[in-house]
Amino acid sequence: MKQTIILLTAAEVTILLTALTYGISAFFIRKAPSYFKFLVCAVGCYTLSEFVWLAYYFCYEERPDILGVFSLGYFGCYMFILAANCGVWNAIVDDGKKAYRKYRIIALSAPVVFSVAAILCYRITTGLTRMQIIAYSLMVIPKIISSYYNLKHLILPENGIGLLKGTRVCNLMALALYAGDGVCTYYTIVANATGVFVSMFFMPLCLLTMMIAGKRGYRKWIR
Amino acid sequence: MDPIMFKIFVCLAFPVFLMMLAMRGRVRTQMLFLLFGLTAGMLAGVINTSVLTATEVSRFYLTVNYSPAIEEILKALPLLVFAFGRKPEKQSLLEAAVSCGIGFAIFENTCLFGQRGEEITMFVAVMRGIGSGMMHSICTVLVAYGISLFVKRKKWFFPGTVAILILAINYHSLYNILIQSKYLYLGVVLTTVGYIATLTVMYLKKRHRQAVRKKEE
Q1: CB contact under 8 A, B171 and A41
Q2: Interface ipTM
Q3: A26 or B35, which is more confident
Q4: Are B160 and B143 in contact (CB under 8 A)?
Q5: Do B177 and A48 touch (CB under 8 A)?
Q6: Using one digit for the tens of pLDDT, what is the confidence trace for A199-220?
Q7: C-alpha distance from B209 to closest chain A C-alpha (Å)
Q8: CB pairs below 8 Å between A and B: how many?
Q9: What are phi and psi of A163, to 5 degrees?
Q10: What are the tens digits of pLDDT across the range B60-81?
Q11: Alpha carbon distance B187, B184 (integer Å)
Q12: Cβ atoms of B175 and B130 closer than 8 Å
């Protein structure tokens, strides 16, 4: 079991550091958009929280508390993605015109799905204390709000400047990340190896894909 | 509150306050934030002790999970007031953040050695002195950088500032985990690398700004 965790840890650290290194060059390029810089910060926050978990596990040979400080890192990651989409991107790509109303309505399905999934997850699992439910619920909030913008920016038609094309994969990966987080939450509560696999492999891959796609996307704009 | 903490605070804060009165301009601002850092350290000590008593968790659990959040929020408060009240240049805000972080580290280390001085070896003293100073300044600079970005952009302000604060809290927690384990040298390596990177970025950005100003002239 420990060997499996060591192998998965090595894979996870490699993927996350690759994603972070790949994205961090954006901070040294003046024309790199704030949207992408926020995504890099999201990856940085996620990476740091994984490092906190791993440092605790390997230094003290026990898992940290599920609602320890490292879980704040996931919350921070989703806050950065929310800031990127709601604060930066939404004003550029959605000017509020009536033609986009149907896309806004369709996009509402994402927060509904993630909310229902979170509620089902808590109802199915037993033994959660009230504090744990409150804490998990708070952590789910930025994910739910951000999912609306991610789905909207995924399905909105191109506005002629080619901005949305560069971010569609990023938005898809963000949604995949939220789904992975939901799976992780459920399997972490029931203590199953699937949760370990999803958190150590699937979610870092989503972040790496987000970085690669995002950088390729904005490079086309600044040419 | 442990009376020794208050005595240490008074012994450190008054000389800094007197020095501040004799300074002018930017140096005075930095001295002021050094004083704020010392104050934040004292408040953090009070709050950490209260939380320890109220929750009955172990000291280790407190230092890994609660203390980083409490301390980073306390250090961020004077920076928030400075950023919104005086609207300083980014460079001034970052320098104030370094002073605040260092002030906090000075108080924290002085308290530690005041309470447990005889148990602490020279090796641990050096590791704490270097590591804690760098770690607190990196975390505070990170928060100040975030505040400088978001203060003008109201829509991003709340999610952006909270997210940057969480980044700093996790970094702080990682340092606390390492420094209390048998791998304490890794904690110092982590902060040394981070500090050198932070100073390098600040220096390069300053040079770039000076070059742009020269071109405009």
Answers
A1: no
A2: 0.84
A3: B35
A4: no
A5: no
A6: 788 899 999 999 999 888 877 7
A7: 12
A8: 86
A9: -75, -40
A10: 889 988 999 999 999 999 999 9
A11: 5
A12: no
Closest CA to B71 of B5, B132, B127: B132
- Per-residue pLDDT reduced to its tens digit, A73-88: 888 999 999 888 887 7
Interface of B with A in 11-50 (CB under 8 A): none
Instruction: Determine how many CB atoms are found less than 10 A away from the CB of residue A8.
Output: 16
Amino acid at B206: K
Long-range contacts: B77-81, Cβ < 8 Å, 24+?
A: B77/B40, B78/B33, B78/B36, B78/B40, B79/B140, B79/B143, B79/B144, B79/B147, B80/B147
Which of A56, A64, A79 faces B159 most closely, judged by CB atoms? A79
Q: B187: nearest CA in chain A?
A: A55
| A215: its two tokens | 């950088």
Task: Output the pLDDT for position B13.
Answer: 93
B178 with A55: Cβ contact below 8 A: yes
pTM attached to this predicted model? 0.88
Kindly state whether B213 is in contact with chain A, defined as any CB-CB distance less than 8 angstroms: no
Give residue-wise pLDDT tens across range A76-131. 999 999 888 887 778 778 877 888 888 899 999 999 999 988 888 777 776 677 77
Distance from CA of A84 to the nearest CA of B (A): 8
B chain contacts of residue A38, beta-carbon cutoff 8 Å:
160
Give the contacts of B62 (CB within 8 A, at least 6 positions apart).
Answer: B48, B51, B52, B55
Is A86 an interface residue toward B (CB < 8 Å)? yes
Residues of A in Cβ contact (< 8 Å) with B174: 48, 51-52, 55
